[in-house]
Amino acid sequence: MSAPVPWLSVVLPVYNGEKYLEHALASVAAQADDSIEVIAIEGGSTDRTAEILRSYESRLPLRVVSFPDLHNWVASSNEGLKAARGEFACFLHQDDGWLDGRLDALRARVERFPNASLFLHPAYYIDPRGDVVGRWTCPLPAGVELRAEQVIERLLVQNFIATPAPIFSRRAAVAVGGLDASLWYTADWDFWLKLAAVGGTVYDSRPLAAYRIHPDAQTIRRTGDAAEFRAQLDVVLARHLAAWEPSHRLASAARRASAFSVEVNAWLAAAVHGRKPSVLGLVPSFVRLGPNGWRRYLRDSRIVERIAPRCRIGLASRIAARPG
């Protein structure tokens, strides 16, 4: 007899994760849901990662798939999706975690909205010690099934979705081609936009996951390549504006807010890595947004929510002070 199909596949890219991995795995085990599967894509770690994974094999329906030398979270996530069997899937990075009751809450949403393909919720920002330092929310109405245009118009301004927050239809993920492996930083933003375009989205306003911010995060370290970082932002925005506008008229204020958000994100990346760009260069673009653009940018970018936690833990100054 074949094994029952899990309702959820948890894709966990892992590489040298001993510092935080046990917290991530424990947060899944605490859900006490034996109708899921956890697929760890292990990239040839040289620390205690393999030992930690083995210690959870009796506590979780855990399957470890080895890909030595695969250290890219995007490529690892795609391999996990290929191996997944669940009706729904989600990503969990080795430094993030779930809050108690997350799966019960999301499964209830899935049962209430069976035709939706993307389910979201806020997340708490946590620091390297696991202390809560902020909250990451989505500028969306809660408790209803949202049409594609309601989500995409706002999501084009900024990726406001924390990686450990969504669950999504695995079939929809396969249909949209998974994550774009050429985008090491913006692959998740591109992926959420693709998923939002092919089905309904449901937002639950309760924070049900934790997103850890720390100096050793791969995406933070790699934003030091300012030109490539800016290019990836531009690629995703241009791609989805081109796909969306022929069939749906996007308000000019939303287009301007999206373009301005790219400028701000590129400026922030440069500032975090100690290049001290002048803020005056942003002023003309901000003025051109006009009142409607200002409102859209402030609502959808979650700029204060994103910056405040990093300032609280002094992340920017610690990265800028590093040599090399």
From TrEMBL:
Signal peptide range in chain numbering: none
A Pfam family recorded for this sequence: Glycos_transf_2
Residues in Glycosyltransferase 2-like domain copies: 9-127
Cross-referenced Gene3D superfamilies: Spore Coat Polysaccharide Biosynthesis Protein SpsA, Chain A
A single GO molecular function term of this UniProt record: transferase activity
Family annotation (InterPro entries): Glyco_trans_2-like, Glycosyltransf_2, Nucleotide-diphossugar_trans
Keywords: Transferase
Protein name listed in UniProt: GT2 family glycosyltransferase
Organism (species): Paludisphaera borealis
